[in-house]
């Protein structure tokens, strides 16, 4: 079974002074303002593609890791995942990497098994696979 999810964006103006909005069309959960400054300067009241990609990656990894822990017989009580997506403009605009940090509450698992299963989930996560040309690193720790 295949499912296609849809998001869209509208952009007005040029890259540097223009702005846009992106919409979560499939879920209808909201719209998010976009602008170039949100990609290159901190403290902007708008999002950027990298933040949206980070949200998708954190969610996807959490789902994959939860499933892998459950299949190990050690289902998680809670997983908190952050994805830091680095955007660099010094050699042309490029996403240079993603760093996932996960902190988990999991009963009955060793730190070594937690780390091993986290690495396997990172490799198997569909968003990680979609980003195969990008460096993806991981920090995994038990709470």
TrEMBL record:
One of its GO terms (biological process) is response to oxidative stress. SUPFAM superfamilies: OsmC-like (SSF82784). It holds the Pfam family OsmC. It comes from the Bacteria. GO terms for molecular function: peroxidase activity. This is OsmC family peroxiredoxin.
